[in-house]
Amino acid sequence: MLLEKLINATGISSREKEIRDLIREEIKDNVDEIYTDKMGNLIACKGKEKDGQKVMLAAHMDEVGLMITEITSDGLLKFQSVGGIDKRVLVSKPVLVGEDKMAGVIGAKAIHLQKKSERDKPIDFDNLYIDIGVNSKKEAEKYVELGDVAVFSSEYEELGNGRVIGKAFDDRVGCSIIAELTEYDFDMPVYYVFTVQEEVGLRGAGVAAFDIAPDIALVLEGTTAADVPENKEHRYSTSVGKGPALTLMDRTVIADKNILTGLIEVAEDNGIDYQFRRTDVGGNDAGAISLSREGVPSAVISLPCRYIHSPLSLIDLDDYSKMSRLVKLYLERLARKGI
Amino acid sequence: MLEILERVTAGFGPAGQEENIRELIKTEIEDYVDELKVDNMGNLIAIKKGNGEGQKIMLAAHMDEIGIMVTHIDDDGFLRFTTVGGVNPKHLINRNFVFEDGTVGTVGVEKLDSYKDLKLDKLFLDIGAADKEKAKEVVGIGDVAVYQKKFNNNGQRVISNSLDDRAGCAVLISLLKEMDDSINDIYAVFTVQEEVGTRGAGPAAFGIEPDLALAVDVTGTGDTPEAHTMDVKLGKGAAIKVMDRGSIAHPGIKNMLAELAEENEISYQYEVLEFGATDARAIQLSRGGVPSGTLSIPTRYIHSPSEMLDMEDLKDCKDLLVNFVKCENLAKVYKK
Q: Is 3.30.70.20 the CATH classification of the domain at A2-63+167-337?
């Protein structure tokens, strides 16, 4: 299954090659044209010569991770985060460092050595390090250079009840759905875009959109679900198992009303569960794409993920297939009657 | 201009939902322009052609206003909401809001131990619905409401909702109505989504490719008791922006505005705003860059339901803008 392969592969912002190669291999025979632009975005298209509105489907390949910024005299690796990571999830987690994926663990001062004031707060990046089991700086430098990145080491796993865990569902679910959609033909030009550097500020998508100049854009994302104990219902954002989430507004974009109306009609006509993303925090590639050139009507469809941006997040595969079906049916409608 | 201002402040148009106010402005100006169009973003672009020997000037005033968006409806029919644009939760208790269809609600607050705990998620909107089903007959998730509309006028000063930036819209509308021929091409743009991050103006500028641009927007004042120090006063004339958080006015444009004000005996003041930004931020960075500035209307209590301006200032802004767009040597602003 493509999703599983994409989850287990790694690709921190600016180091998306492994993901890009995997997707290219998977879809190259389905599309008319496929290329990588200067930023590293993978762009495929079908039906370029067809009439109808030019659609850009976008999902980002990159995931959050860590970058090595210092090697201590003891051979421990200090790091900073690439993209937003909750520092509370870091300590004691296994990681893979550098292109050779050297195993390591995130360490911190032992609890009995911490002052009381330190124990009351999450440990800051400054007091965390990656231990790759070497004794000196010199030894560490054989394996690691400054600027190398580290990713969470975790595997895709089924929990039963259709729920699965793994890292980077944000946004490999989007990549996987778009890659699978290349198997179908739509009666309009469709661009399948796998972007870079979303997690560090939507940097790949704007460049891709400028080049493609689409008439309409759909961004497929993984988004936060907060349907957990001690949270009130009005603060859930999205709930796992209740279908794909449609964005009304976030920090970067207000969804195009015509697209949103179309998506809702398609969902309701076909009995596909959907929900609204009930928070306005966060942002995604639609922010950059919608402001490209003279503006591009854009909308975002997201898969709810619990524990997002952590070593193991959780999704419902039923949400995945509903999201995939919703996007496919919406594209068919778009080809038939436009926006 | 007072009548125009009263009409446009009454229009409904939170960021992202500018259809109503756009139609209203269209009706105001359609008989006075050569061409009208609506772009992908929803910006309304009104064109008045010059004689072909002048400059292409983009003027921008934003149509959108701040508001609140429904995010959740509970079993008892209370609505939770988030803000659209810069709305301060501390200003909201017991304020009335109105939806596009006229539905009115008032903001209530959960029990608080201290007003320091007053955060957005402690607030709810009560539209007088008995339960969830009743509420859902009237509103849905994603619906947006704005401060209930009320225009007050004492002959000199106006207290109203939405002066930010319907005051700028009123200036552009008046300009289009009374302008006769100019050598310059005027692109008067009523932009969308300024309040959520100057999103409409950039794409509009990309399409227009202007030679130079002016945003027309409100700015704060420092003339109320114990106010944050700011050298702008109500009633002291059009404010020529020097700098805010989003842009530094092109010096040529800033100086040209001041020269024209002196020549034509129009009251003006310079403005340095320590927070906020206008559409000039997005326009100036479009394509290879556009020399841009902002002409500001001094306004008190911005982003509250009761913003205040002085009609003389508004007239000064309009007069200065008329002189600017008629100016025959605008090219000297940016040509070395």
A: no
